Amino acid sequence: MAMAAPEIDIRVQDAAFDPGALLSQFTPHAARAGAGAVISFTGLVRDLPGATGGLSRMVIEHYPGMTEKALHDIAQQASSRWSLGPVLILHRFGALTPEQPIMMVATASAHRADAFLAADFLMDYLKSRAPFWKKEFTADGAAWVAAKDSDEDALSRWR
Amino acid sequence: MDVLYFAWVRERIGLPKERVDTSAATVMDLVRELSAREDRYALAFSDLSALRVAVDQELSDFDAPLGGVREVAFFPPMTGG
């Protein structure tokens, strides 16, 4: 997309959000910037069917200051690799319950390939390069979610 | 400098942040210094492969120099998304 410096919108918040409402704001904004394609990804809190009583809540801790910088840096990298319109990254912290949205990314480009690839890239980097940590609470107790080797491996395909 | 701890590192050490007066030249020197203080530190730093470090809010390495650094953070691998 022949555009000026892409606009990057980073939001780190404990408040719940409505993915549909965000997308409704993002889409016309992207269209005005010349986009022909908008991609969005929403991450949800999954229940833990294996645990007694399931997941009662998930608490997300983050590193205020570094989080915003890391997300901005990841978005900047995506914008320099692909021809993008506006980029939105929203990530929650604090206490969440199953089925609630945790985070959302939205990308826009003239044609769909750039926006698809950029959204995929953002998700891969966000999982293991943005300072968030998830803790799951069930009737059996609480446990920090362990990082997966596959998350780290996922980054290698972008190098 | 300020030293910050997150997730289970914070829980194991028992505090989120502390002011440390140190002449440690590298992150590794700081880890050794903290580990020598008390068991809870030694325990938290016992397996460095399970830890990540940020220097002035940028992901870094254990051999990173600390000259002029204001803030060092220790935490487990991140699990966002």
Largest sheet of chain A: 4 strands, mixed
Strand arrangement, major sheet of chain A: 1-4-6-2
**CATH fold-level name of chain A:** Aldehyde Oxidoreductase, domain 3
Q: Structural class, from secondary structure content of chain B?
A: alpha+beta
Instruction: Give the overall average pLDDT of chain B.
Output: 97
> What integer value in Å does the Rg of chain A equal?
16 Å
Short description:
The complex is a heterodimer of chains A (159) and B (81). By secondary structure, chain A is of the alpha+beta class.
Topology:
The complex is a heterodimer of chains A (159) and B (81).
Chain A lengths: L7 E6 L5 H14 L4 E8 L10 E8 L3 H16 L5 E6 L1 E3 L4 E9 L2 H18 L2 E7 L2 E4 L4 H8 L3
Parallel strand pairs in A: 1-4
Antiparallel strand pairs in A: 2-6, 3-5, 3-7, 4-6, 7-8
Helix pairs in contact in A: 2-3, 3-4
Chain B lengths: L1 E4 L1 H7 L3 E3 L7 H9 L3 H6 L7 E4 L2 E3 L10 E5 L6
Parallel strand pairs in B: 1-5
Antiparallel strand pairs in B: 1-2, 3-4, 3-5
Protein name (chain B): Molybdopterin converting factor subunit 1
InterPro entries (chain B): Beta-grasp_dom_sf, Mopterin_synth/thiamin_S_b, ThiS/MoaD-like
